Amino acid sequence: MTKAPITSKVQMPLLMVMAVFLIVVMPVLNMTGHIQDYTLNLWGKYLCYGIMAVSIDLLWGYTGLLCLGQALFFTLGGYMMGMHMMLMIGKLGAYNSNLPDFMVFLGHSKLPSFWEPFYSFPFALLMVFLVPGLLAFIFGYLAFRSRIKGVYFSILTQALTYGASLLFFRNELMMGGNNGFTDFRSILGADLRTGSTQRILYITTAILLVAVIFGCKWLTNSRFGLIQRAIRDSENRVLFSGYATANFKLFIFVVCAMIAAVAGALFVPQVGIINPSEMTAEKSLEAVVWVALGGRGTLVGPVIGAISVNALKSWATREYPDFWILILGGSFVLVVMFMPKGIVGIPAQIQGFLKRFKRHPGRLSKVVQTETEPAES
Amino acid sequence: MDRQGFMTRLMWIAGLLGIVLAIQEVSAQGEMSVREKVAAAITMPDSDNQIAAVLALKLTPSPEIVEWLGKWKEGLVFIYQDETGATIPVLLGEKKTGTRKVTMRRLDDDSVVKAGDGMSVEVAPLDVEMAETSSKLRKAMKQVTDLAALANPDLALRIRAIEDSAIGQDPEKLPALLMLKKTEQNQKALDALDESIAIINLRSVDTAKRVEAAGLLGRRGSLAAFDLLKTIAAEEKKSGNRKMEEAALLAVKRIEAHISTINATGTMFRGISSGSVLLVVAIGLAITFGLMGIINMAHGEFIAVGAYTTYLVQNIFAKGIDLSPFGKSISIPGMKLSEGGMDMYFIAALPLSFVIAALVGLLLERSVIQFLYRRPLESLLATWGVSLVMQQLFRLIFGPNNVQVSSPTWLSGNWTVNDVVFGWNRLFVIGFAVLIIIATWLVLNKTSLGLLIRSVMQNRNMAACMGVRTERVNMMTFAFGCGLAGLAGAFLSQIGNVGPSLGQNYIVDAFMTVVVGGVGNILGTVISALGIGMADQTLQQYLGNPVIGKILVLGGIILFLQWRPQGLFVTRSRSLD
Amino acid sequence: MKQKPFLLAAEGLNKSFDGFKAINDLSFYLDEGELRTVIGPNGAGKTTFLDLITGRTQPDSGTLEWDSEHDLLKLNEYEIYRLGIGRKFQTPTVYGDHSVVENLILSMAGPRSIWHSLFGKVTAVQRDRIAEILKTIKLYSEAHRKAGELAHGQKQWLEIGMLLAQEARLLLVDEPAAGMTDEETYRTGELLLSLAGKHTIVVIEHDMEFVRQISQGRTVTVLHQGNVLCEGHVDKVQSDERVIEVYLGRKSKAA
């Protein structure tokens, strides 16, 4: 009966308000000149992060799988879109060659065959889903089959990300080495440097974010959602209820990899650069911070977390460049320890706090510890 | 060939003749220093006598000969004729400012040339004559200097000279080598002599000698002769000398086998040493993660704490250090110790790195970790936050760049056994790992703390019921694990860079090592560290690409866990989940 | 006349943990429709035996046959479950964060595919069945409470309810009376008796009062050191000297 009453009641209207604000109000304000192009572009970036955060929450908050590889899938999606956009630069690059600049620079004269199909936008889009999806499938299949879970899963995904970033730093991979891709000109024929193109990209991102949230809402409210949370709380018991948990985990893992990948594919044209430094376990962990801060196990929380942490970051890196990381790291420790439900959970936490205070006015200190949920065993 | 042989013989005879003459001279003049002998040779009236005198130096080979004959050859020795008409070989001094004249020092006794009145004589450089050398004389000089180099009292340099003498297979060098072989006492030098002689003999006119030489080189697995033997085999195939060709081919085959043994041993050695690095880095984690189940993402930063402690100790032993954390400047005075004292700083740094890292660990355990014992995923996240903060603190205190930590001089150099090079630093790595493992094992198995640690880790509740103060044990165990990380830091400062992100380079590897070894098992960690180190080095050896090797190792680990999901050693329990 | 095949036949099972023989050459046969009680002192291997049947643990040697056509050793946990073998664990394990109804929905007999979990609906028949089970296990009024908030005894019943929802052919019930009051224990006994005949049931229990209540002339199996010490009517078992020595005797001494 105490099952997160405030969050679930608030969520739906909050969600609708957020959707309208992000999809309609922001672009309109931009067109009327009340919001600068720069700001809108920044928000486009935040929303991409928001989508990735939802995918992390779907794994961590709902299924108990703390994946440190979401930044990898995000970046892979970005790379797939980036390959298409690199080819769309055509002869406008620094070397006036049909080849992407970095290939000319490395002394290649012919486009590698795996690049060829990326001239087609639909193919690139397909790859945005397929490449990260396939990687997630193979890795997930191996990991879940051998029943690797909990922190072991986290550590292994961290290693996967680490290995992949090592690979992408190599020039031999023909993916731009440590400089990655940049200098994009156009997407689907539209000039990337105009405000209107960026606005359309922003709107696309906002719509996608809302769609993802609603999709996840449906998913988590289905019987699948029940099983997901059951796996999170007691995976062994689920096995003894006749469910092949490995398949369920694999399914959600692949879905989340694809969600993160789409976010990455939208991120690249808005930011204009993609390189392997985005592909680290630290980036994944940073995204986990957003989720933890916003409130895991909810769908709005991760988005709120992603936007607020990144907005804070943009401001703090300018104002306090030396202390920003101290603030981030420190606040993260505090959130994990004292606010297990994040920002979204604050009202419930205060409520519970007051209730306890009335009952046992002298035992405030205990609240913090008993308020936490049992973790994955 | 023939002509050259004749010339050599001629020179040799001339040399012997010279020796005979010189012996008379020596007996007449008593014991002369090398400088005096060279000076005397310069003043000899004609070229033949000069040659004889130079060759006579062969009797008393010493490195000094190389120096003075070298000066003569390079035209740095001049002839000064004094008032009495005596010719004196001299070296010119520095030109004084304001004059064009220079002072002179005698070649024989290094004294300043003085006139009868006791005043030092000054001359214009153009007024003195250079001591000339003819090409015959220079050839004789070379013979003598080669032999003198071979007589270097320093064993390493002598062996180097012996090995160098084989280059070019100059038969003229044979007599010197053969002569040295009669007097040489050291077995290594003798082996080198045999090898050099054989290499020169490969170009001998006598086929029997050549075959014998090839046989010897093959048996010895001579690396120096490898390319030459291959060339000879190809040459003799063309010329149809079957016997020599076969001998050369056999030798090549034997040397190849030797080379692959060297490579395998070398790879194994490097594998063990890089496995030892992993082990040292992972052993602390095997305690905190393996035994306690805490995912300490800041483990790498504890390594950095140890490394920075070592850096501070080094500076305190030397001339002190100025730091400016948070805009405040702090000066720590140094003890200004001499070289010998500096070499000792590492010994002092070891216990300190352990203690300081352990104290920081204690602080972390009390402030954060103790609340997260039952929530491993949360402890992962919180400690990652701590790791961010610690890295940034390192940057603010010690600066964003790598700091200089010098390693003691005894860490450079190497030890060569049967052509396999064992670097001291790698041997140090292995030795250190062994020590740390023994220490950890002793603490866990032979102390009362170890007993408590093991009881709490096996069954926390039971231990608590038996009156064990589990909180304290947790604290101590975590501090112990962090202290070990600090030791690893002190150790890494000796073999790599020390910077704010030092720990980040090792954290993934360290976790992999513990996961593969099997949680809760120190022996598993040891074996997995060595296994991963070996696999890594072997792949590097065959692929020639460290990155691809590393990626394959990571992939291999994932596949390995398919086979043994709980690592090498499973700690069984009958409890649910 | 051809004998009716056993529902469950275990032969020559062995399992040791680090040298400790938990199951030692155990053979065990169960007919369809039986209500069998298994007793034995601590460490007799009762729970390990259930672990072997449900695929939680693999034996070192031996055979386990289900309905004379399935080799249980080749199947994993959820495949064994799908054959109709349900288990109630020693400590009640329900989904604490889910409501009572959700716990039952998760256990409902039916397809277990991802597709079905996404698009399958709870049918009216299933709804009725859930209501019926809720009444049987006396949790109707608690249907929407979180299972984690239930009292210990209620959790035990919910777990039995989950077995009913599963429509298991074989119910493996591990210490259902543990931690219950006498009255709850008695009602649990009644519940199990009412299921006998419809389902095949194996009950593992310590409480001799309870054992006597539910066995009522049925076979009782005594396990000792991983092996069947004796088998038969409860009175016969209770008067068997070996049983008294290893189990009852010790128990009466302790009491």
List the helices and strands and how they pair.
The complex is a heterotrimer of chains A (377), B (577) and C (255).
Chain A: H1 5-31, H2 37-63, H3 70-89, H4 101-105, H5 121-145, H6 150-168, E1 181-182, E2 186-187, E3 190-191, H7 195-221, H8 223-239, H9 245-271, E4 273-274, H10 281-294, H11 300-319, H12 324-338, H13 346-359, H14 364-370
Helix pairs in contact in A: 1-7, 2-7, 2-8, 2-9, 2-10, 2-11, 3-5, 3-9, 5-9, 7-9, 10-11
Chain B: H1 2-29, H2 34-42, H3 47-56, H4 63-73, E1 77-81, E2 87-95, E3 102-106, E4 122-123, E5 129-130, H5 135-150, H6 155-165, H7 174-183, H8 187-201, H9 207-220, H10 226-239, H11 242-291, H12 299-317, E6 321-323, E7 330-332, H13 339-343, H14 345-367, H15 376-398, E8 414-417, E9 420-423, H16 424-446, H17 448-458, H18 460-465, H19 470-495, H20 504-517, H21 522-543, H22 546-563
Antiparallel strand pairs in B: 1-2, 1-5, 2-3, 3-4, 6-7, 8-9
Helix pairs in contact in B: 1-3, 2-3, 2-4, 3-5, 4-5, 6-8, 7-8, 8-9, 9-11, 10-11, 11-16, 11-19, 11-20, 11-21, 12-14, 12-15, 12-19, 14-19, 16-17, 16-19, 17-19, 20-21, 21-22
Chain C: E1 8-17, E2 20-30, E3 35-39, H1 46-54, E4 61-66, E5 70-71, H2 77-82, E6 85-88, H3 100-107, H4 114-119, H5 124-136, H6 152-166, E7 170-174, H7 182-195, E8 200-204, H8 208-215, E9 219-224, E10 227-233, H9 234-239, H10 241-254
Parallel strand pairs in C: 3-8, 3-9, 6-7, 7-8
Antiparallel strand pairs in C: 1-2, 1-4, 4-5, 9-10
Helix pairs in contact in C: 3-6, 5-6
